[in-house]
Predict the structure.
Amino acid sequence: MTLGDKLRSLRSVEGSLRGLGRPMTQQELAAAMKREAGRGLSQAYLSQIESGARPHLTHTTRELLARFFRVYPGFLVDDPEGYTPGLQSELRAIDAKVDSWLYAGAEQFTADPELQRALGVIAEYEDSRQAVLLLAEILRTPGLADRLHEVLRPGEHRTSEQEGSGHLPPASLSN
């Protein structure tokens, strides 16, 4: 797991612990650090860490983040290639990467709250890898998405263009 993945994961856990029901945003993290630790990092700097543009932290930055998140400072470095802690299975490591990818993707869709929420729901599912694979199978099975839409969204009418294309209206991904 990269340093950026770890920071995204820590923001997710922190958001959950604070009752947000979603990961803390980088802006929320920057403000909370300043308020609670007396000093913080800018949202731009956090973004550079998560994107990999800043792959290494200064000692001071590492200590500040470790103290805020209550983790060992050594946790805040990239893991060596192929490293998995304890007896973690390869599929669980993949699931963690899928979670990180989904959370990062959700942050990109602030203009589409339904899609942002849907990605977050999948990321929070216990086995998000399996959830994505299941969605692929639902979409691959002719007519199944339409039947599910009828059951889950009774009375919601689809246009003839949507019916012919197999695409569901945007509201079908909420809940």
Notes: The chain has two domains: 3-75, 90-173.
